[in-house]
Task: inverse folding
């Protein structure tokens, strides 16, 4: 499937680079969920505690929440899920969420990561969006693959654009400290009832705004996400139905099913690398970001890798590899040269833990040429056959920041931009942000927006980066998949817990930021049989002596002084 064959999807948990790329390649609208691999926190030792403001202090800063009544979702959010829209679109009946232009015609420069070849600055999409908003936005698109390098150089200079978009996965080293020092406090414009001047921003959930507090100030314009775990064990339901396979409900059942499926002689294996599903089914504390790896367990501040469940999950995954149930391509790890999608579609392996956005994406790719193909998502199980214990991802992961030196008129023009880009699905503003101009950038075919070649060229990861509406899943071409994905989030949300530092921006002292740099590689080496569980135990022991125990004390003090944002 080419990008213009998909409809919009935004939302899911803890946006990451990998899921952002997946969703923009498959769904041309905003962002869906995040693989919990790439986000990080960093800081200087300077003592700034970043976004640890919570409780009463946060309530003084946060914008008032006023739910939007412009459009009603077909499936309301529940248990932290995205909201879902299943109906077809009719351009003539699209709602208006911004009745008058709030922009005053000023110029605003925005630096943002971009994947692919950015369009020209005077392209039809940028021109039309600027006209709708009433602001002359000038884009300074930068290569998303090397954005961290550009970001560091720009923030170290005196020439910072009016707006800089910073994804969570780029918040390493000195970036969080730079955010606190270089960008504006938006509280005077948005805190409390002030946000009501920008109704679409007022409709952004408070959890996402809480995540936008840096150094005790409201500084980021957020891209909200569902906090429900976003890694879904996708499976070939069409093959399961044909063969009579049953969806497993425990770790042992999965292992038995994997044995039944696997037949190397006929070029079929059970699954891909199931490490992240194992972490979920064994109830391992979230690893999405450094701060989420810590929580109180039985009165002790505990890191995820100190728990028995962590080692048990690695051992179970190792057994899958050792038994030969994992497709050989996945044994290559990150050096894997080919995209597994084609082999999943060909039935070479039947279970693939993946970002929730690919649930729709894999189906949409195959819908035209393979009508019998059906991919679905397994509910996560507890490893022992009981209910799972899942851990929440963060409720926002990409932020836009305004230059501290910006004038009030520039800041208000930026907020006018954000008030349009945060418009909900089913509005004229959402269609402009995500699809551009009808007839130029997209056409509607049976209520489904389909991008033209010009739309594919121009309407990509630009305005969607400034701010977004509450997490949304909308696939009018495959409404059953919207229902399936939102339903999955709602069911899994019922088993989801929030760790001690959920929803907070934590800036770790620099002396601790490299302690776990090699952990993920060691995990992958263990599950592939290159290293042993005892190697991880040694790593944990070394980690404690090199600073892990001191970092534990630091987090405990942080919790004692600031409390938790989780409720």
Result:
């Amino acid at each position: 499937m080419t990008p213009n064959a998909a409809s919009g999807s935004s939302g899911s948990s803890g946006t990451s680079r990998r899921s952002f790329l997946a969703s923009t390649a498959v769904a041309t609208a905003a962002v869906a969920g995040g693989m919990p691999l790439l986000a990080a926190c960093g800081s200087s030792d300077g003592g700034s505690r970043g976004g640890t403001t919570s409780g009463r202090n946060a309530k003084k800063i946060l914008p008032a929440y006023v739910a939007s009544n412009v459009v009603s979702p077909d499936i309301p959010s529940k248990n932290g899920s995205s909201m879902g829209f299943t109906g077809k679109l009719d351009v003539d009946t699209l709602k208006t969420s911004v009745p008058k232009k709030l922009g005053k015609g000023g110029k605003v420069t925005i630096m943002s990561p971009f994947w692919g070849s950015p369009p020209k600055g005077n392209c039809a999409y940028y021109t039309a969006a600027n006209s709708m908003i009433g602001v002359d936005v000038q884009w300074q698109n930068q290569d998303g693959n090397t954005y961290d390098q550009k970001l560091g150089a720009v923030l170290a200079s005196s020439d910072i654009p009016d707006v800089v978009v910073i994804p969570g996965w780029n918040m390493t080293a000195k970036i969080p400290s730079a955010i606190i020092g270089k960008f504006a406090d938006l509280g005077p414009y948005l805190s409390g009832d002030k946000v009501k001047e920008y109704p679409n921003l007022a409709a952004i959930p408070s959890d996402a705004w809480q995540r936008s507090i840096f150094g005790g100030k409201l500084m980021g314009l957020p891209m909200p996400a569902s906090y429900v775990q976003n890694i879904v064990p996708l499976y070939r339901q069409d093959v399961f139905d044909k063969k009579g396979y049953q969806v497993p409900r425990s770790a042992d059942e999965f292992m038995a099913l994997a044995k039944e499926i696997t037949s190397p002689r006929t070029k079929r294996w059970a699954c891909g690398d199931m490490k992240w599903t194992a972490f979920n089914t064994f109830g391992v504390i979230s690893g999405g970001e450094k701060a989420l790896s810590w929580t109180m367990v039985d009165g002790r501040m505990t890191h995820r890798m100190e728990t028995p469940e962590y080692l048990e999950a690695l051992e179970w995954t190792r057994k899958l590899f050792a038994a030969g149930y994992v497709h050989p391509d996945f044994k290559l790890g990150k050096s894997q040269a080919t995209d597994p999608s084609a082999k999943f579609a060909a039935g070479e392996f039947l279970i693939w833990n993946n970002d929730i956005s690919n649930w729709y994406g894999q189906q949409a790719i195959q819908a035209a040429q393979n009508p019998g193909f059906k991919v679905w998502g397994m509910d996560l199980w507890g490893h022992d056959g009981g209910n799972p214990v899942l851990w929440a991802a963060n409720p926002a992961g990409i932020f836009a920041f305004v230059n501290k030196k910006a004038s009030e008129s520039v800041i208000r023009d930026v907020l006018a931009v954000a008030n349009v880009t945060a418009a909900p699905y089913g509005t004229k503003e959402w269609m402009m942000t995500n699809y551009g101009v009808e007839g130029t950038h997209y056409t509607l075919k049976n209520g489904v927006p389909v991008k033209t070649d010009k739309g594919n060229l121009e309407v990509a990861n630009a305005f969607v980066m400034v701010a977004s509406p509450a997490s949304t899943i909308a696939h009018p071409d495959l409404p059953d998949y919207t229902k399936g994905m939102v339903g999955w989030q709602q069911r899994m949300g019922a088993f989801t817990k929030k760790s001690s530092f959920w929803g907070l921006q934590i800036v770790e002292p620099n002396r601790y930021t490299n302690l776990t740099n090699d952990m993920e590689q060691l995990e992958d080496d263990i599950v592939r049989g290159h290293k042993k569980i005892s190697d991880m135990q040694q790593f944990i022991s070394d980690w404690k002596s090199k600073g892990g125990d001191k970092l534990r004390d630091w987090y405990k003090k942080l919790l004692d002084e600031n409390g938790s944002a989780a409720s």
